[in-house]
Amino acid sequence: MADSLGWIVRQVDVNNAFLNGILSENVYMKQPPGFKNSQCPHYVCKLNKAIYGLKQTPRAWFHRLSNRLCELVFAASKSDSSLFIRNTNGSMMFLLVYVDDILIPGACNSAIQLL
Question: What is the fold, at CATH topology level, of the domain defined by 2-22+54-114?
Fold first, then answer.
């Protein structure tokens, strides 16, 4: 569709995307090797943010990303949860998310750059 309309398509790979998720529930883990407190070796760590390896991490990252996109006047597609649409001043822009890769096709290069 983007090619037939002559739109620009940008691809973005978000580095360390999963480390940007904020957990909505309490998650605890054992003290990691090399960081154990010798005075309290049986203590556990309460995580404040998501880390790689947790099953909650992808959901936390996507929730934070989708909230931010809604603040930027993107509307979530009802037919595909990974598709966001913005139509401002007659300029259409789409944002398609796959894990930590994002495709941004749109009619206006400056709007895509600004995003």
Answer: TATA-Binding Protein (3.30.310)
pTM of structure: 0.82
Q: Where are the domains of the chain?
A: 2-22+54-114
Contacts of 96 (CB under 8 A, 6+ apart): 82, 83, 84, 102, 103, 104, 105
Cα(73)–Cα(92) distance, integer angstroms: 12
Q: In a structure prediction context, what are the per-residue pLDDT tens digits for the chain, which is 115 residues long? A: 889 999 999 999 999 888 889 999 999 999 988 889 889 989 999 998 998 889 889 999 999 999 999 999 999 999 999 999 999 888 899 999 998 999 999 998 888 998 8
Amino acid identity for residue 33 in this structure: P
